[in-house]
Each structure stands twice: as structure tokens, then as C-alpha cells.
Fold:
Amino acid sequence: MDTVNVELFGKDPKVQRAIATAKNLAVTKAPILIVGENGIGKKSLGRYIHLNSNRGDYPLEIIDCATDVQSVEDEILGYRNEESGRFNRGILERANKGTVIFANIDCLEENFQKKLHKILSELDDYDIDVRIISTTTKNLSKLVGAGRFYRGLYMMVATNSVYLPPLRERIGDLNEIAKYLINQKLDGRNIEIEQGVLDKMNEHYWAQNINELKTVIDGSLMDSSAERLTISDLALGDKKVINSIMDEDGDGIRLMSLQEAEKLLIKKALVHTSENRTQAAKILGVSIRTLRNKINEYRNDGSSYFVNLR
Structure:
């Protein structure tokens, strides 16, 4: 798959159809929206599309729209360094003739969505030719209907869509991907995997999909010289709760109070479920009433995410 590990996507027919669609679309210039849960490989599929297009020898730029609003705008449009006075070009200019991936495009600030739509519409006037790929965990059409995503931008980026199903719906892929990750971690050295390990992994919810599976595998193979992976080695349960506090970029665990950790986990559950409170409560193992009370508590404290939560 041209430097993109096919083993990390799986062999499930739904996934294979998504990859086939992506490869067919790669030869066009059409924008593509990749939809799927956190950690499922949306950016990797975007890279695959870029590498299988006639733009593969040109730049690929990726921006996470879920980061700080001003930083996102500066990175897209360009900005002048206050200390040196040097102007840093934006990603659209840097990626000329190549591809730009707008990760988590649903997180763009609402006013900037309209501004970005205008900019993308006028790229030809500035002799800038880029392929636009966007990713989202949410149903953008519903956000448009709710007035939370600009219709013009939606019509532009969602011309073609590819959906990657969650890992927990593909038990066969889960086992194969886990074995592949173990093999990679051990540099090809064989290790016996206790059946109970696979059984417990199959029962797990995998809210962060392949990213979470990687974290669990890394934690489970702390003793890389072991010849057998057992239930006691498996970094799920209490270990998993700690790992889920980590950022997706894998920067490590930040020490925080229990209250901060609770707020972070609730936010991640809501983001993961596209703000479906019933599903979020199920993931967190609390009642919908408890979750509602926590949301109101954080909203009253002025936490920006919860204040804007609808």
C-alpha cells in the first residue's frame, strides 16, 4: 500500500470496500471526506490516497482543526513571526500541487468555516492547486442541519465520502491487527498468545480503536523477552483507564488531579460519541443522570467545551 501498512486497516469486507473506493478516488482531484471514530486510521487513509495519486511526489500537509483556534488559522493562512519578522507561508501555499488533510474539520470555529470556504473557492486565482481531504468523527450533514457547520464548506469537502467502521465491529480484524502489532513490537520474534488474551480483547469496547490497541499492546509487552503473553500481562482494566488519559499523539501521561482526569474522560467520551450522552454514559459506566449532572457542573464552572455543548 505504498508505505501505508495495510495490516493496520484489516481485511473485513467493509474496510476493503473503503480502501478500494479511496484508491479509485485517488486518481481524481475531487475532495474526499473520511469518516470514522477516533484512532481508526483516517489520516493514514488520507496519506494512502495522496501516495496513490499523481500528486504523490508533491507535498502532503496535515492540520488538526481541533487545536487552538488562532493556531489553526495561522497555520492555514500563514503568519509573521513576531521575533524574526519572517513570514511563514500557510499550508495551502506550502502544499501547492500536493494534498492538504484537514483532520477533525468539524472542529473549525464557525466563523472561520465561512472564511475557509471563500479561500478554497479562490485558490485558482492565486495559482494554487491542492487536493483537499478532510476527516471527521461526526455526521457533518447533521451539524449542517443544526446550524453548526457551514453548508457551503460542507458541499465543498463532502463531494465524496469514505467510511471506516470501528474496530469493535470487526472481531476478525481485531485479532489479526493485534497479532501484527505484537509481531512488529517484537521485531518478528514469535510469542505464544494465550487464548484468554484474545477473548478479553474481543470483549473490550475499544473506544480509541487502533490507537488504543497499539497502546495496550505496548503496555502488555513491557517484558519483551517473554515467550508467552498471558491475561496478567494484558494492559486492560485499571491500566487501560490510565492510558486513556494520554493524548492521541502519544506525548505521554500528564499528571493531573482526579477532578481534571474525570473532566477529560467525560469530554473524550462525548467527543467520541458525537455528543450522544446515552452512549457516552455507557462507555463511562455511569447513569445518564450522573453524566448530565457532571456536564452541568462543568458548564457552571465556565469550561468552554461544556458551555458550548448542546
In short: Strands lie at 32-35, 60-64, 78-80, 87-89, 99-103, 131-136, 160-163, 192-193, 228-229. Residues 39 and 211 are 5 Å apart (CA to CA). The chain is about 45% helix and 10% strand.
